[in-house]
Amino acid sequence: MSRVTATITGPGEDVARVPELLDGLARAHQLDADAVADMQVALDEILSNILTNGFADSRPHRIDVALSVDGDSLTAEVEDDCAAFDPLAVPPPDIGPALKDRRVGGLGVHFVRKLMSKVSYTRVGARNRLLLTRSLTGKGGTDGDA
Amino acid sequence: MEMHEEQLSGVTALTVKGRLDSTTAPLFGQKLESIVATPQSRLVVDFGHLEYMSSAGFRVLLVAAKRAEEVGSRLVLCGLSAKVRQLFDLGGFLDLFTIARSRDDAIAAAK
Predict the structure, then answer these.
(1) Rg of the Cα trace of chain A?
(2) Nearest-angstrom CA–CA distance, B37 and B29
(3) What is the pLDDT of residue A141?
(4) Is A38 exposed, middle or buried (0-12, 13-18, 19+ CB in 10 A)?
(5) Distance (Å) from the alpha carbon of B96 to chain A's nearest alpha carbon
(6) Which residues are registered as beta bridge partners of B52?
(7) CA A139, CA A38: separation in Å to the nearest integer?
(8) Is B81 at the interface with chain A, CB within 8 A?
(9) pLDDT at residue A144, rounded to an integer
(10) Fewer C-beta within 10 Å: chain A N or C terminus?
(11) What is the C-alpha to C-alpha distance for residues B78 and B14, in angstroms, rounded to an integer?
């Protein structure tokens, strides 16, 4: 098993480093490009959600990210010390309306659900813990037709 | 993310390379806005070298498409890889944007 970690204390440089970290891991293990792209999207959604919502109270916070490759799965553990928030409880977006009425709210979590093979959320003490897993052998998608 | 802009007989072709995520989307959004906000402008966005796009990228693309519609500009997309097309599909965006099969088709459609 191979594992790399990063700590994020705010938007900007810290966050921009995460995709580089995942690319490095992908290169070292010659990971499937589709699986890596799916994980990149999922991580961007989750981290930007935490930075937008969790960090909104203007208190100092930190996010710990650990990326690992184990056998045939790529996993991201994302832990933060923000207010309790379960992204899996976000309702799916309405993707029906025409252009002028379309909103992008909820789309990020929708992508996470569709692209990952497994997603789990737990509140551990004062921390949110999200586990994202993408199979390296099959397609993603936790809820059916992805 | 890198952007490369070309002028081709009245059509602006913008090639986007790398990642469109929450870090890079604002810059992409500013670029789109600066082009489509001019009434009757013609813009082709070539995603042929795009690795992936997160919802932050879709958000700015949606804003630009609405803007284009308001001012009579035209926005045509091309170069969607299988991965990028899957993301458009998951978000329900395939029918919302004009998507051409090739860059040449996109330029013809934008004119």
Answers:
(1) 15
(2) 12
(3) 66
(4) buried
(5) 6
(6) B19
(7) 10
(8) no
(9) 44
(10) N
(11) 10
- Out of A37, A48, A99, closest to residue B52 by CB: A37
Q: What chain B residue is nearest to A95 in terms of C-alpha separation?
A: B92
All structural domains of chain A: 2-135 (3.30.565.10)
What is the domain partition of chain B in residue ranges? 2-110
Supply the DSSP symbol for A137.
S
- Residues in a beta bridge with A65: A6, A78
Residue of chain A whose Cα is closest to the Cα of B67 = A100
Is B83 touching A (CB cutoff 8 A)? Answer: yes
**Amino acid identity at A79:** E
Query: How do the residues of chain A divide into helix, strand and coil, expressed in percent and rounded to 5?
Result: 40, 25, 35
Which of A31, A100, A107 to probe the B interface (max B CBs under 10 A)? Answer: A107
Q: Which residue of B has its CA nearest to A41?
A: B54
The complex's ipTM works out to 0.95
Tokens matching residue A92: 């799916």
* Topology adopted by domain B2-110: Transcription Regulator spoIIAA (3.30.750)
Q: For chain A, what is the mean pLDDT? A: 91
Other Cβ atoms closer than 10 A to A138: 11
Cβ of B23 and A99 within 8 Å? no
**Bridge partner list, B5:** B14
A32-48 pLDDT, tens digit per residue, is: 999 999 999 999 999 99
Q: How many CA atoms lie within 13 A of B4 on its CB side?
A: 9
Candidates B37, B68, B23; CA nearest to A43 is B23
